[in-house]
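Notes from hallway chat w/ T.B., transcribed later so I don't forget. T.B. wanted the structure written out for a chain they're using in a teaching module, and asked if we could keep both sequence and structure tokens in one place. Agreed to drop them here.
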Amino acid sequence: MFVGFRHFNNINLMKYLFQIKLTALIAFISIFIISCKNKVQREKFDITETFDFTSPKVIILPQDVAEISGIAYYPKDTCVFAIIDEDGLLFKVSLNSPDEVKVWRLDNQRDCEDNVYKDSTFYVMVSNVDLDKINFVNDKMAVTKVDFPNA
């Protein structure tokens, strides 16, 4: 036995070691919580031209657009374009009047995962990593498959 522990039997030694471990754990957790508490600050967002973060507007989308897998904001018409992957449908939902919904069929044979709007063009990512480029002319959709020559 250790010199300092001669008066302890095995049970007392186990209790003593357990108390030391428990005290160390409580001290560690307390120090951790105190140090984190001082660092946690809520991010404050400014009110922008397009969104007031202090009082967000909640829009209930129509049931047809309930299971979307991708969404992109379209500032020209203050609307969002949402895509439903299994059905291959692209929806245009007006944020000012959410009941106004336009629908286009992309391709129900492929699984569309996401859509992005950039420089007047929508890009739709397909699950097999294909990419479709979509442009609208007078509410008619023109789809072009993007080729990746080195892929």
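Follow-up for T.B.: The mean pLDDT is 77. Might be a good example for the class.
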